[in-house]
Amino acid sequence: MNEKIIDSHCHLDMPAFDQDRQQVLEKARAAGVMGFVVPGTTRDSWQKILDLAAGETDVYPALGLHPYFCAEHNTAQVDQLRTLAEKMRPVAIGEIGLDFFRPDLDQDLQLELFELQLQVAQDLELPVILHTRKAHEQVLKLLKQYPVRSGISHAFNGSWQQARQYMDMGFCLGFGGMLTYERSSKLRTLAAKLPLEHLVLETDAPDMPGAAHQYQRNSPEYLPEVLDVLSEIRSESRQSIAATTTINVCRVLTLPDKTRPVPDPQDA
Ligand SMILES: [Zn+2]
To answer: Average pLDDT in the 33-56 region?
Structure first.
């Protein structure tokens, strides 16, 4: 039986899915994926994501300006984000953060946009979805300055100490296709010993394909492969990892947990 799981991070709005978005959703649902969190990347992505979520009961929108595309952003767009998020109440502000891995990305602009968006999340009492590369210390410092409600550190690649600090702030850590590579030994060790109550599954589709789909488009239909590898490295059942990671996403992003039986109004 396919376990019920949630893809806490997939870019279903991207052009890579323009030809077959509905089929991708259907295949993923058939594989057990019963929720799709779609984070924003640029201002132009927001309406597409909101439209997609409006048409599907299991697609959850997040809105934000992704640090990777900072050359396309400006601070006026953060004001637009605030207005739109206030009106539409996305499940999170994201994905936002700092990417200090790519030397060509303007770090000062990234910092400015990140702080402004943390302020939006704090003011609107929304969680955040974080993209962080080579910048966990800076991100953790800013989270202490802007104590947002909670969130997810997506594609987590930091240390045990850094993971501890995120968890102490109520954050979950996202793990995806990278875990399926045997060479990811450091990441696997970390994912094996972190408390299950702080883990969430993700694909980051169409990027970050797992070992079985190298050089291909990644897709939420492959999320069960992440569940399989976590089950193996943690020596825990697929059922318990599926159930707990689903509860975790629902908790941090306040999603309705559709795996639970709907209470009969007669019993109320
Ligand atoms: Zn992403």
So the answer is: 97
Distance 259 CA to ligand 1 centre (A): 25
Give percent above pLDDT 90 in the chain: 94
Rg of the chain in Å (alpha carbons): 17
The C-alpha atoms of residue 59 and residue 12 are separated, in whole angstroms, by 9
Which pair of structure tokens corresponds to residue 100? 């200090």
Alpha carbon of 201 to ligand 1 centroid (Å): 13
Q: How far is the CA of 9 from the centre of ligand 1 (A)?
A: 6
CA of 37 from ligand 1 middle (Å) equals 10
Question: Which of the four pLDDT bands, split at 50, 70 and 90, describes residue 268?
Answer: very low
Q: How many helices (H) and strands (E) does the chain have?
A: 9, 8
Query: What's the CA-to-centroid distance between 168 and ligand 1, angstroms?
Result: 23
Query: How far is the centre of ligand 1, averaged over its atoms, from the C-alpha of 68 (Å)?
Result: 10
CA of 263 from ligand 1 middle (Å) equals 35
pLDDT in tens, 79-128: 999 999 999 999 999 999 999 999 999 999 999 999 999 999 999 999 99
Q: What is the mean pLDDT of residues 6-18?
A: 98
CA dist 137 and 249 (Å) reads 24
> What average pLDDT does the segment 136-156 reach?
97
Domains of the chain: 13-260 (3.20.20.140)
Q: Which residues pair with 80 in a beta bridge?
A: none
ω before 137 within 30° of 0 (cis)? no
Distance 98 CA to ligand 1 centre (A): 12
Query: Confidence class of residue 2 from pLDDT cuts 50, 70 and 90?
Result: confident
Ligand 1 midpoint to CA 237 (Å)? 27
